[in-house]
Amino acid sequence: MRYILTLAYNGDNYHGWQIQPNATTVQQTLNNCFSLLLKQEIDMLGCGRTDTGVHASMFVAHFDVEQEIQDTEKLLIKANKFLPKDIAIYKIEKTSNDFNARFSAKSRTYRYLVHTKKDPFLNKISWFYPYPLDINIMNEACKTLKKYKDFSCFAKSGGQTATNFCDIYSAQWQLFDNYKYTFTISANRFLRNMVRAITGTMIELGTHKIDLVGFENIINSKNRSNAGASVPAQALTLIDVEY
Protein backbone atom coordinates (compact mmCIF):
# COMPACT_ATOMS: atom_id res chain seq x y z
CA MET A 1 0.00 0.00 0.00
CA ARG A 2 1.21 3.49 -0.85
CA TYR A 3 1.23 6.64 1.30
CA ILE A 4 1.99 10.29 0.57
CA LEU A 5 4.16 12.27 2.93
CA THR A 6 3.94 16.09 2.91
CA LEU A 7 6.84 17.73 4.74
CA ALA A 8 9.25 20.63 5.04
CA TYR A 9 12.92 20.84 5.92
CA ASN A 10 15.75 23.25 6.54
CA GLY A 11 18.59 22.05 4.33
CA ASP A 12 21.49 23.57 6.27
CA ASN A 13 22.59 20.27 7.81
CA TYR A 14 21.92 18.03 4.80
CA HIS A 15 23.67 17.11 1.58
CA GLY A 16 20.40 17.52 -0.27
CA TRP A 17 17.44 15.15 -0.47
CA GLN A 18 18.89 12.10 -2.19
CA ILE A 19 20.82 9.38 -0.40
CA GLN A 20 24.59 9.62 -0.87
CA PRO A 21 27.42 7.51 0.56
CA ASN A 22 29.03 8.97 3.69
CA ALA A 23 26.70 11.99 3.78
CA THR A 24 23.63 13.00 5.79
CA THR A 25 20.58 13.46 3.57
CA VAL A 26 16.89 14.12 4.14
CA GLN A 27 15.86 10.92 2.36
CA GLN A 28 18.09 8.73 4.51
CA THR A 29 16.92 10.46 7.69
CA LEU A 30 13.28 9.80 6.79
CA ASN A 31 13.99 6.22 5.74
CA ASN A 32 15.64 5.51 9.08
CA CYS A 33 12.78 7.09 11.01
CA PHE A 34 9.92 5.32 9.25
CA SER A 35 11.74 1.99 9.03
CA LEU A 36 12.06 2.04 12.81
CA LEU A 37 8.49 3.18 13.49
CA LEU A 38 6.86 0.80 11.01
CA LYS A 39 9.23 -2.10 11.71
CA GLN A 40 9.95 -2.73 8.04
CA GLU A 41 12.34 -1.40 5.41
CA ILE A 42 11.01 1.92 4.08
CA ASP A 43 12.35 3.61 0.96
CA MET A 44 11.02 7.12 0.35
CA LEU A 45 10.77 8.52 -3.17
CA GLY A 46 10.76 12.32 -3.31
CA CYS A 47 9.27 14.84 -5.72
CA GLY A 48 12.74 16.14 -6.60
CA ARG A 49 16.40 16.23 -5.64
CA THR A 50 17.28 19.42 -3.79
CA ASP A 51 20.99 20.27 -3.68
CA THR A 52 23.15 20.49 -0.58
CA GLY A 53 21.94 23.32 1.67
CA VAL A 54 18.71 23.95 -0.25
CA HIS A 55 15.47 24.09 1.75
CA ALA A 56 11.90 22.97 1.14
CA SER A 57 8.87 24.61 2.71
CA MET A 58 6.70 22.12 0.80
CA PHE A 59 8.02 18.72 -0.28
CA VAL A 60 6.19 15.53 -1.23
CA ALA A 61 7.39 11.94 -0.97
CA HIS A 62 5.73 8.56 -1.18
CA PHE A 63 6.50 5.21 0.39
CA ASP A 64 5.08 1.68 0.29
CA VAL A 65 4.16 -0.57 3.22
CA GLU A 66 3.14 -4.22 3.44
CA GLN A 67 -0.05 -3.58 5.42
CA GLU A 68 -2.39 -0.61 5.84
CA ILE A 69 -1.39 1.93 8.49
CA GLN A 70 -4.19 1.92 11.04
CA ASP A 71 -3.66 5.41 12.47
CA THR A 72 -1.80 7.90 10.29
CA GLU A 73 -2.28 10.74 12.81
CA LYS A 74 -0.58 8.71 15.52
CA LEU A 75 2.27 7.88 13.13
CA LEU A 76 2.57 11.56 12.23
CA ILE A 77 2.97 12.54 15.89
CA LYS A 78 5.53 9.80 16.51
CA ALA A 79 7.54 10.69 13.41
CA ASN A 80 7.75 14.38 14.33
CA LYS A 81 8.95 13.46 17.82
CA PHE A 82 11.58 11.14 16.40
CA LEU A 83 12.87 13.38 13.59
CA PRO A 84 15.35 16.24 14.16
CA LYS A 85 13.95 19.76 14.53
CA ASP A 86 14.90 20.73 10.98
CA ILE A 87 12.45 18.26 9.40
CA ALA A 88 8.68 18.56 9.92
CA ILE A 89 5.99 16.17 8.66
CA TYR A 90 2.69 17.91 7.93
CA LYS A 91 0.55 15.09 6.59
CA ILE A 92 0.49 11.34 5.93
CA GLU A 93 -2.21 10.13 3.54
CA LYS A 94 -3.07 6.88 1.83
CA THR A 95 -2.98 7.11 -1.97
CA SER A 96 -3.38 4.94 -5.05
CA ASN A 97 -0.55 2.61 -6.00
CA ASP A 98 -0.01 4.41 -9.30
CA PHE A 99 0.78 7.74 -7.61
CA ASN A 100 4.43 8.74 -7.91
CA ALA A 101 5.78 11.71 -5.97
CA ARG A 102 8.27 12.49 -8.70
CA PHE A 103 6.60 11.55 -11.97
CA SER A 104 3.02 12.51 -11.08
CA ALA A 105 4.04 16.10 -10.31
CA LYS A 106 2.87 18.66 -12.88
CA SER A 107 4.96 21.58 -11.64
CA ARG A 108 7.48 22.66 -9.04
CA THR A 109 8.09 26.18 -7.76
CA TYR A 110 11.32 27.54 -6.27
CA ARG A 111 12.02 30.88 -4.62
CA TYR A 112 15.41 32.56 -4.26
CA LEU A 113 16.00 35.46 -1.84
CA VAL A 114 18.53 38.27 -2.27
CA HIS A 115 19.07 41.32 -0.04
CA THR A 116 21.21 44.30 -1.05
CA LYS A 117 21.40 46.01 2.35
CA LYS A 118 23.20 44.40 5.26
CA ASP A 119 20.65 42.64 7.47
CA PRO A 120 21.78 40.20 10.17
CA PHE A 121 18.35 38.57 10.33
CA LEU A 122 18.37 37.48 6.69
CA ASN A 123 21.80 35.91 6.30
CA LYS A 124 20.67 32.31 6.86
CA ILE A 125 17.80 32.45 4.38
CA SER A 126 18.87 35.10 1.87
CA TRP A 127 22.01 35.96 -0.10
CA PHE A 128 23.62 39.32 0.70
CA TYR A 129 24.63 40.99 -2.55
CA PRO A 130 25.61 44.63 -1.74
CA TYR A 131 24.96 46.18 -5.15
CA PRO A 132 21.81 47.72 -6.68
CA LEU A 133 19.87 45.54 -9.10
CA ASP A 134 17.87 46.59 -12.14
CA ILE A 135 14.68 44.61 -11.50
CA ASN A 136 13.06 45.78 -14.74
CA ILE A 137 15.67 44.21 -17.01
CA MET A 138 15.68 41.07 -14.84
CA ASN A 139 11.94 40.71 -15.37
CA GLU A 140 12.42 41.19 -19.09
CA ALA A 141 14.80 38.23 -18.94
CA CYS A 142 12.06 36.24 -17.20
CA LYS A 143 9.93 36.69 -20.32
CA THR A 144 12.85 35.49 -22.43
CA LEU A 145 13.15 32.30 -20.37
CA LYS A 146 9.60 31.25 -21.27
CA LYS A 147 10.48 31.32 -24.98
CA TYR A 148 12.96 28.45 -24.60
CA LYS A 149 12.93 24.79 -23.61
CA ASP A 150 16.59 23.72 -23.83
CA PHE A 151 18.39 24.96 -20.72
CA SER A 152 21.70 23.14 -21.12
CA CYS A 153 23.50 26.40 -20.35
CA PHE A 154 22.14 26.31 -16.80
CA ALA A 155 22.68 22.59 -16.15
CA LYS A 156 25.48 21.42 -13.89
CA SER A 157 27.86 19.07 -15.67
CA GLY A 158 27.68 15.42 -14.73
CA GLY A 159 23.92 15.31 -14.49
CA GLN A 160 22.15 12.04 -15.30
CA THR A 161 19.05 13.50 -16.97
CA ALA A 162 18.08 12.16 -20.38
CA THR A 163 17.20 15.64 -21.64
CA ASN A 164 17.86 19.27 -20.69
CA PHE A 165 14.44 20.37 -21.90
CA CYS A 166 12.09 22.06 -19.40
CA ASP A 167 8.82 23.96 -19.69
CA ILE A 168 9.00 27.15 -17.63
CA TYR A 169 5.50 28.26 -16.69
CA SER A 170 6.28 31.46 -14.82
CA ALA A 171 9.24 33.50 -13.57
CA GLN A 172 9.27 36.82 -11.75
CA TRP A 173 11.42 39.11 -9.64
CA GLN A 174 9.81 41.19 -6.89
CA LEU A 175 11.22 43.91 -4.64
CA PHE A 176 10.23 44.52 -1.01
CA ASP A 177 11.35 47.30 1.35
CA ASN A 178 13.68 48.64 -1.37
CA TYR A 179 16.36 46.01 -0.68
CA LYS A 180 14.77 42.55 -0.46
CA TYR A 181 14.45 40.73 -3.79
CA THR A 182 12.63 37.47 -4.47
CA PHE A 183 12.96 35.40 -7.61
CA THR A 184 10.12 32.89 -8.05
CA ILE A 185 10.14 30.35 -10.87
CA SER A 186 7.80 27.47 -11.78
CA ALA A 187 8.38 24.69 -14.30
CA ASN A 188 7.43 21.11 -15.01
CA ARG A 189 10.97 20.07 -14.03
CA PHE A 190 14.34 21.57 -13.16
CA LEU A 191 17.84 20.47 -14.01
CA ARG A 192 20.52 20.01 -11.39
CA ASN A 193 21.65 23.45 -10.12
CA MET A 194 19.43 25.15 -12.73
CA VAL A 195 17.67 27.73 -10.54
CA ARG A 196 20.89 28.88 -8.89
CA ALA A 197 22.59 29.20 -12.29
CA ILE A 198 19.67 31.19 -13.73
CA THR A 199 19.69 33.45 -10.69
CA GLY A 200 23.43 34.04 -10.94
CA THR A 201 23.13 34.93 -14.60
CA MET A 202 20.25 37.30 -13.91
CA ILE A 203 22.32 39.02 -11.22
CA GLU A 204 24.88 39.78 -13.94
CA LEU A 205 22.05 41.18 -16.01
CA GLY A 206 20.72 43.22 -13.08
CA THR A 207 24.14 44.82 -12.57
CA HIS A 208 24.48 45.46 -16.34
CA LYS A 209 27.46 43.15 -16.77
CA ILE A 210 25.50 41.64 -19.65
CA ASP A 211 22.45 42.85 -21.58
CA LEU A 212 19.30 41.08 -22.77
CA VAL A 213 20.91 40.11 -26.07
CA GLY A 214 23.81 38.59 -24.13
CA PHE A 215 21.37 36.74 -21.88
CA GLU A 216 19.62 35.22 -24.87
CA ASN A 217 22.97 34.36 -26.46
CA ILE A 218 23.90 32.43 -23.33
CA ILE A 219 20.74 30.31 -23.59
CA ASN A 220 21.31 29.69 -27.29
CA SER A 221 24.91 28.65 -26.67
CA LYS A 222 23.76 25.66 -24.55
CA ASN A 223 27.12 25.97 -22.79
CA ARG A 224 27.25 26.15 -18.98
CA SER A 225 30.58 28.00 -19.01
CA ASN A 226 28.91 30.99 -20.69
CA ALA A 227 26.33 31.49 -17.94
CA GLY A 228 26.85 33.21 -14.61
CA ALA A 229 28.13 31.59 -11.42
CA SER A 230 25.73 29.62 -9.27
CA VAL A 231 24.49 31.65 -6.31
CA PRO A 232 24.75 30.21 -2.76
CA ALA A 233 22.36 27.42 -1.79
CA GLN A 234 21.11 28.71 1.55
CA ALA A 235 18.78 31.27 -0.08
CA LEU A 236 16.91 28.74 -2.27
CA THR A 237 13.68 27.03 -1.20
CA LEU A 238 11.30 24.66 -2.93
CA ILE A 239 7.97 26.27 -2.04
CA ASP A 240 5.33 24.32 -3.98
CA VAL A 241 4.66 21.10 -5.89
CA GLU A 242 1.46 20.64 -7.87
CA TYR A 243 -0.15 17.38 -8.97
Describe the structure.
- Strands 1, 2, 3, 4, 5, 6, 7, 8 and 9 form a nine-stranded mixed β-sheet that branches.
- The model has no long low-confidence stretch (mean pLDDT 96).
- With 243 residues, the protein is of the alpha+beta class.
- The longest helix is centred in the N-terminal third of the chain and has 13 residues, at 26-38.
- The protein has five helices and nine strands.
List the helices and strands and how they pair.
Layout: E1 2-9, H1 26-38, E2 45-46, E3 55-64, H2 72-82, E4 87-95, E5 107-115, E6 127-128, H3 135-145, E7 168-176, E8 180-187, H4 194-206, H5 212-221, E9 236-242
Parallel strand pairs: 3-9, 5-6
Antiparallel strand pairs: 1-3, 1-4, 2-3, 5-8, 5-9, 7-8
Helix pairs in contact: 3-4, 3-5
Strand content range = 25-35%
Rg calc: 19 Å
Secondary-structure element order, N to C? EHEEHEEEHEEHHE
Query: Which structural class do you get from the secondary structure elements?
Result: alpha+beta
User: What's the tally of helices?
Assistant: 5
Mean pLDDT: 96
Quick one: overall form? Answer: globular
User: Low-confidence parts, pLDDT < 50 over ≥5 residues?
Assistant: none
Number of DSSP E strands: 9
Calculate the terminal CA-CA distance, rounded to whole Å: 20 Å
Largest sheet: 9 strands, mixed
Helix coverage percent of residues?
10-25%
